[in-house]
Amino acid sequence: MDKLIFTVIAAVILLVIALLHVAYLTYAERKIIARMQQRLGPNRVGPRGLLQPIADMLKLLTKEDIVPYGVDKPIFYIAPLISLVCAGTGVALIPLWEKFVLSNINVGLLFILALSSLSAYGVILSGWASNSRYAFLGGLRASAQVISYEIAMSLALLSVVLMAGSLNLIDIVKAQISSPYKIYLIPQIIAFFVFIISAIAECNRVPFDLPEAETELVAGYFVEYSAMRFSIFYLAEYFGMVVMSALAVTCFLGGWVGPFEVPYIPFFWFLIKLYFILFVYIWVRATLPRYRYDQLMGLGWKVLIPIGIVNLFLTAFLKLIV
Amino acid sequence: MATYLEINKKQVNGEKWEEPFYLNMGPQHPSTHGVLRLFLELEGETIVNCTPIIGYLHRGVEKLGENLNYNQAIVLSDRLDYIASAANNTAFALAFEKLMNLEVPRRAKLLRTIACEMARICNHLLWLATHALDIGAMTVFLYCFRDREWLLNIYEKICGARLTHTYVRVGGVRQDFTQEIIDDLYKFTEEFPSRIYDYETLIDVNRIWLKRTKGIAVVPPEDAINLGLTGPCLRGSGVYYDVRKFRPYDAYGEVNFVVPTGKNGDTYDRYRVRMEELRQSNFIIRQCLDKLPETEGEPVLAENAPDLLMPEKIKKPEPKPVPKKGVIFRGADVPVVPPGEAFAAIESPKGELSVYVVSDGSNKPWRLRVRTPSFVHISAIPYMAKNHMIADLVAIIGTLDIVLGDSDR
Questions:
Q1: A295 — contact with chain B (CB < 8 Å)?
Q2: How many domains does chain A have?
């Protein structure tokens, strides 16, 4: 019983921290991109605009929730929740520290992959249920994109699994520490890049933000959503970013381990690495134009997947020899 | 595109028939540059058919112009292509001056040329900004707007307005440049080439940008001529044609510049042509500025330029009655503007802009006709968009550089 209560409290704390991260990720994104584009960014609400995410949340909560005529109501209601739940659950599996992980299951990596595939259903269903042609096209694009990039991502992670010999995320980090390289970034640099590119595509971020391509499909799959349902999609997107970055930190950058111990803050190195990868996400958004649909598919199937397969075989071969 | 009747007939006859996927893009759409509406017939994401529907911004500029006097009609021209209003002003003014046989002072010509080239830079910057934004590069958008702001501030110093400034008048320009403006322009022309280089480093070496623009919407030179494309769109296809070179107006005869042309006629070439034009415009402004001291002190408005409020009639002084068998000779009105017609064409930033005006002797144009590049360019969209994807359509609208105020008039 004690253990259950402890888990519930830990889960609530983790959720709050994750939500804060997501909220201030939007703020950070706006500020960083503003800096890169010679603008000011939010600076009205609170000191340096620090309360902007809270103001945004309040605004979105109090807006009218419009359900257009002709939508498939149950699916329309449930689609954003599918996205959010699937993206958010991943947080529970990430080991923030050796002794702090909410649910330490043996197939953690597989579970996260499964969740990220499932979150595509939110996008597809919302596109289908919206009764709008733009949303429909966005949903179609999303399904194709998620399927093709899922494979590349799994291939990249499989090489890590081969090296670590485990699907448990804590074991993967421990294997990294005990390996001669300390982090898997060095032997698995190819897999790392394949993973980062597919993770950006998986989260529908620029330059792969085709499902919501603003200048083509207006807003893509969530064009008919408003108020909180709309922001739930945004939450899901940012949750997805956080989970994917955390996964990259865990699998390639050595998790909570750093060059030296920081006293009292066991999560220090984990968070630093996490923020760095999130910064890369934002940086890419400020720099690159958007791919076209067929070019995106070409990149996935003709470049990333072959590279992933070759890398996987190389890893397996080296593991046999060494 | 299958009409409703055809579809109905097929259904009645029980033919196997699949309804194509129709998509109505616009008139409210983030990237149709205003209120352009495109009716698309899609196959997956590929465009089978595309029908542009225009007229959502029709204000009747031509008809309005026929109810205003010549000086007032120039104000309307600002509202055609509101991004480069100095060029439109010049086209109207040139036509009216031909009609009235006005000789524009040299200083006014130089000032007009500067204003026109500033408009070209403004237009191309805005084009680059929106084109890049359409393709997804958001940063270029804001960089371009930053530099456009610089020019708009100079415009504000010149005549008080930023966009619709009506700086060019029939017979000259509104007022002379002050020394401050000339200094500002010198500073701008010195710094601007490095800014162009900045944009190019942002997108020219970007593989995604190249993939999105190379080989998209290829227009061979013959087709470009047949479609009526003008301006950078025509030159991008490799046709050497520029009104500024072929029929020089204002001070273009006395400045040096190169007319850049493309090779393949794709979106990338049109982009390159416009980037090169930015440099050339900068060069032209510089040359005109250098020539300004030669004309120091000259008037900027022709002596016989019409008053701002043109009189409706000029009464001929009544001749002394000739006592001749009871015939009373009445003085007829002298025409304010000589009756006749005039045509003027200029190289506006978007293409060839021409004005045709017919006068019946009164102070208002009897007929005013404007040929705007955007209108013609929109008609080329179906040709260019065929068998491309939706994402390319956005690039095509961008590369044609259309403004709906210009097209709908």
A1: yes
A2: 2
